[in-house]
C-alpha cells in the first residue's frame, strides 16, 4: 500500500505539466457562470427535466458554490437554494385531498376488519357444553372427591378460591 502511494506520487511529480493542466481545467470549469437561460424558471421546469439534466445542473451549481459566494450571480444563488431546499422530491407538497384519502382508506380497513370479525362470530359453532357454570361446579366437586391438590388446591382445608368456575 505504501509502496503504491510512493510510486504514484513520484510519477505525478515527474509530470508537472499534467498536474497543472488538471488544476487549470478544473478551475476553468468552475469559474464560468451558469447561463441565465439554463436557470430561468428552474422552479417550474425542475420536475419535468430528465434526471441526467438535473444532475448536470446541480453539479455545475455545486462547483460554482465552492468559490466565494460573492462571485455567484443572483440567479445562481436563487437556483442553488431552490435545488437544495425547494419543495420537490421528498419535500414536495402533498396533492390536494391526500389526507381525506388516507382517512377513508383507514376507515375502510377498520370496517372490513370488523365485518370479518362479526362474520366469523356469526358463522362459528356454539360454545362447547363444558363452558357453563354447572359443569364447572361439577368439576370442582369431582376434584374434591378425587382429593386433587390436597395442600393448596380445591381439596385443601379452608380453600376459598373459585376453583374451576370461570363463567359468570
From TrEMBL:
InterPro entries: Cyt_c_oxidase_su4_fam, Cyt_c_oxidase_su4_sf
Membrane topology: Single-pass membrane protein
Any single Pfam family the record assigns to this protein: COX4
Family: Belongs to the cytochrome c oxidase IV family.
Record's keyword annotation contains Transit peptide: yes
GO cellular component assignments: mitochondrial inner membrane; respiratory chain complex IV
GO molecular function term, any single one: oxidoreductase activity
Alphabetical list of PANTHER family matching this protein: CYTOCHROME C OXIDASE SUBUNIT 4, CYTOCHROME C OXIDASE SUBUNIT IV
Transmembrane segments: 102-124
Keyword set, alphabetical order: Membrane, Mitochondrion, Mitochondrion inner membrane, Oxidoreductase, Transit peptide, Transmembrane, Transmembrane helix
The keyword Cell membrane is assigned to this record: no
GO biological process: mitochondrial electron transport, cytochrome c to oxygen
Pathway: Energy metabolism; oxidative phosphorylation
Record-given protein name: Cytochrome c oxidase polypeptide V
Subcellular location: Mitochondrion inner membrane
Highest taxon, organism lineage: Eukaryota
UniProt cross-references to CDD domains, sorted A to Z: Cyt_c_Oxidase_IV (cd00922)
